[in-house]
Amino acid sequence: MKSTVFWNRGNKTINLNPIITDATCEKASDSIGTVTLTVNKERLKNFKFEIGDNILIPYFNNNSKVLFRGKIFTISYSNNDEVEITAYDILKYFQGTKYNVFPTIDLGSIIKVMCSDLAVEYGYLEKTPACPAKLYTD
């Protein structure tokens, strides 16, 4: 079954299906965790994707309608008139049942642990003062 892919920023929503040339989804437990879209640059015209824009995909899973609601994390422009967009599911952060207890360590170290758990790339992080003893995450 083909799903419709929507882009959203603020109060503006656009159906992306006419400009998508390829789409892949990676599962995280029983829902989609990551969506990678390939878009034809020529069809974009004056439209521009930005980090943090929303990607919405209604789909069916086990006969129930669910929604991938993700944020764009990466945008890659290629020389062959394509743009690759990767979005990660924002609902994942609210569906967790475990928590991590971080002894008094700096925020950068906590972010590194969380990014490693989620397989998200990160850049250089400066050392910061220690954080509270407990931080609840997925």
Structural class: mainly beta
Mean pLDDT: 76
The largest sheet, given as strand count, sense and whether it forms a barrel, is:
7 strands, antiparallel
Could you give the order of strands across the largest sheet?
2-1-5-6-7-4-3
SSE ordering = EEEEHEEEEHE
- Helicity range of the residues? 10-25%
What proportion of the residues form beta strands (DSSP E)?
35-45%
Number of helices: 2
- Radius of gyration, in Å, reads 17 Å
Describe this structure in words.
There is one protein chain. With 138 residues, the chain is mostly beta strands. Helix content is 12%, strand content 44%. It is built from two helices and nine strands; from the N terminus they run E-E-E-E-H-E-E-E-E-H-E. The strands form two sheets. A seven-stranded antiparallel β-sheet has the order 2-1-5-6-7-4-3. The chain has a two-stranded antiparallel ribbon with strand order 8-9. It is globular and about 50 Å long.
In a nutshell, what does this entry contain?
The chain has helices spanning 41-44, 107-118, and strands at 6-9, 12-15, 20-28, 31-40, 54-61, 64-77, 82-89, 100-101, 134-135. It has 138 residues and is mostly beta strands. It starts with 5 loop residues before the first strand and ends with a strand.
Q: SSE layout and pairings?
A:
Elements: E1 6-9, E2 12-15, E3 20-28, E4 31-40, H1 41-44, E5 54-61, E6 64-77, E7 82-89, E8 100-101, H2 107-118, E9 134-135
Antiparallel strand pairs: 1-2, 1-5, 3-4, 4-7, 5-6, 6-7, 8-9
